[in-house]
Amino acid sequence: MPEITGIAHVELSVRDLERSVAWYTKLLGARDVWRGSNEAYGISACAIYEPKSKMVLAFTRHEEQEPEAFSPRRPGLDHVSFGVADRAALEEWVAHLDALGIAHSPIQDDHQPPSVTFTDPDGIALELSYPKG
Known about the structure:
Blueprint (H helix, E strand, L loop, with lengths): L9 E4 L3 H12 L2 E8 L4 E8 L4 E8 L17 E4 L3 H14 L14 E5 L5 E5 L4
Parallel strand pairs: 1-4, 5-7
Antiparallel strand pairs: 2-3, 3-4, 6-7
């Protein structure tokens, strides 16, 4: 079987490209590394890079958008989970979310893995979690 080296990027459809890029770069300490558009497909896009994890997140704004809000119950995406090292790191993230004014759940120790959940400006479900045990 051919090998893959990992996930190259995750790309999220967003309503407002500039708002989402600003929100995620502030949340993750990432930088805007690529922009492009395709008039034939009616899209504009951006990729951001988080240097510690080397994670690439990309965002696409479609000129023709569906009116429904994001729902993890709709087939497609349930949520994106960002991994952290341990409970202390998760507690640091809670403080960071608080400092940014981002509403979130408490640390959910009854989940496997323990996690904190929140949503982005488009209501896309996000999670921070660490392996336990």
